C-alpha cells in the first residue's frame, strides 16, 4: 500500500511511504544532507517508536538536475520493522510530526502467506537449497480448481494427490474419488488421517497398476511439472482415464509477461520444478493424447496494469 505524501523538511523531501504486507514500513525520499544525518533525526512511531530495519541510498538524477548536485546518490529508502500492520503511523523529524497516516487498512501476511518471510530478517547467507526449496504438500484446495474438479465424472483418480486435500474435499461433496502418491515419508506425514484409506502409495514407476479406462476421470493438479519423464506419466494418465482428464501446471508465461516489472512469480522458484509450461507447450504436449482440450487460466490477477495467471489448466474430454 503506497501513500504519496510529498512533504519537505530541512533540505529533505519524503516522496512516499509504503506499508508493506510483511510488516515493513518504507520511507522513500531524498536529502541534500548525508544519509547518516537524516537517520539521526528521522523516526517512525505507531504508536510506539519502531526500530530501523535497513537504510539504503538511491540514485536520484532528478535531484541532481534540480539542485546541481555532483552526487546522484542523494535518495534514501528507510525501512522500519513492525510485527503487525498499524492503523496509524507518524513520521517524525527532530521529534516533530511531519506526516501522519491514519486509517491504514493493509493485510499482514506473515502468517497467512509466509513465503520467504524469514529472509527479511535473517542475517546469514542463504544457499540455493534454502531458496529454491520444496515444502510439504498443500492442505487446501483452490476454489477455482475445485470448481472444475467437482464437475468431473466419477469415479475420479487424483494422480499425485499430495496430502489428499482434493480427494478429501470431493468425498465430502459425495463424489467417488481416490488418490495415488509417492511412498515417501513427507507424503505419509502430510496425509489427512480421514482419507488415508483412499490413497494408494507407490514407487513412482510406470505402468500404473490400474487397467485401461479404470476411472471415468483422472486429475493431476500441479504434478507433471515435477516429473522428468512427464510424457510417460501423461500416457499412463490418459490410459487409465475413460472420459476426462484434468491437468494443471504453473503458467510459465508469468515470467516474460512480468519481466518489464522485474517480477518473477514466487511459485516458479519451487526447487523441484523441472518442466515449465506455457499454453502453447502444454497444447503441443497434449495434442498426441487428446484433441478435445479446453484451456483455462487460473488465479488471474492484475499487477501494475499487467494481467497474468498463476496457473494453467487443461480439461481434456476423451469421450
Question: How would you describe this structure to a colleague?
Answer:
With 319 residues, the chain is an alpha/beta fold. The protein has two domains: 2-124; 143-317, Vaccinia Virus protein VP39 (Rossmann fold), CATH 3.40.50.150. It is built from nine helices and 15 strands. A seven-stranded mixed β-sheet has the order 11-10-9-12-13-15-14, sandwiched between helices. Strands 1-2-3-6-5 form a five-stranded antiparallel β-sheet. A hairpin with a 4-residue loop joins strand 2 and strand 3. The model has no long low-confidence stretch (mean pLDDT 89).
Percent strand equals 25-35%
Which stretches are low in confidence, meaning pLDDT under 50 for 5 or more residues running?
none
**Secondary structure: number of strands:** 15
Helix proportion: 10-25%
Domains (count): 2
Tally of helical runs = 9
SSE topology string? EEEHEEHEEEHHEHEHEEHEHHEE
Describe the main β-sheet briefly.
Answer: 7 strands, mixed
Overall mean pLDDT stands at 89
Query: How are the strands of the largest sheet arranged?
Result: 11-10-9-12-13-15-14
**Amino-to-carboxy terminus distance:** 49 Å
The geometry reads as elongated
Tell me the name of the CATH homologous superfamily of the largest domain: Vaccinia Virus protein VP39
CATH architecture of the largest domain: 3-Layer(aba) Sandwich
Cα gyration radius (Å): 26 Å
Structural class: alpha/beta
CATH level 1 name of the largest domain: Alpha Beta
